[in-house]
Amino acid sequence: MTEHDQAKIVLSGRPDFEAIAAWVRPDSTVLDLGCGDGLLLKYLKHARNTRGYGIEIADENVIACVKNGVNVIQSNLEGGLAGFDAGSFDYVILSQTLQAVRHTEEIVLELLRVGREGIVSFPNFGRWDQRLQVLRGAIGFVPQEPFLFGATIAENIAFGADPSQGKREHVEQGAEVARLDKDVLAFPKQYDTTIGERGITLSGGQKQRTAIARALLIDPKVLILDDALSAVDTYTEEEILGRLRGVMGQRTSIIVSHRVSTVRHADQILVLDDGHIAERGTHDELIAHNGVYADLYRKQLLEEELAAS
User: Fold this and answer.
1) Which domains are assigned to the chain?
2) Which strand ranges, in their side-by-side order, compose the sheet holding 51-56?
3) What does the mean pLDDT of the chain come to?
């Protein structure tokens, strides 16, 4: 039995380890915070050919890391992170519950400074009471076909926000970012306009932009746009995305789209083909790869040129 097979058996009780390994690219560099006995790094070395270090403070775990052939720095997390320059690793991993870590915000900021990508797993998350409600409360989700109520535009935007978030000034700010403000100001009653059941008096694009404004109002930690700009033209889409970039840069943002123009500025683009991830990278990397994404980009560029002529 190979060491890789042995590691898989040992890790069978920690499914998050295998999920982490699936996320890490082959031949990358990894820093594991609070690495314990080093089994994750050992697994990544054999499964993904990674290189890197672990940071661990407990004497017995440091000894276990050495026995497992893992490079380990004996230090607390703050001290260990401070010893590395910005962007020193492709990935920085924290595979224990964040709530068990002191100075959480400082460590996460350092994690993002030292690594190009950060991976945090929550093995104890399943024990939380009301965990789904906690998770959903941190997510702003905008589907392709949003549901609107037979109420005013302001009430639809403020739906789900607490009183401190749903003030008129906040509603108008959200509408401005979603590029809905000009449309609303053209209505006779502006934000007090009743839009009918399911927003029947609004166009498809106006419905989507109302839902985007609603999602922004709760200031979510995770923003998901599921083909949420499909009903607007490419010019309006670019204007909305330009306003959204500052917002998306302050949180985890996931955009699902069939348009290359919607995702081209993303930090990471995952290309799905027949239900599987076919390609992954930045826009420039995927164009250079000349695969599925590049082919789609050329087709959509040609369609835009033909439409403009």
Assistant:
1) 3-126 (3.40.50.150), 136-249 (3.40.50.300), 267-309 (no CATH)
2) 72-74, 51-56, 29-33, 89-94, 115-120
3) 78
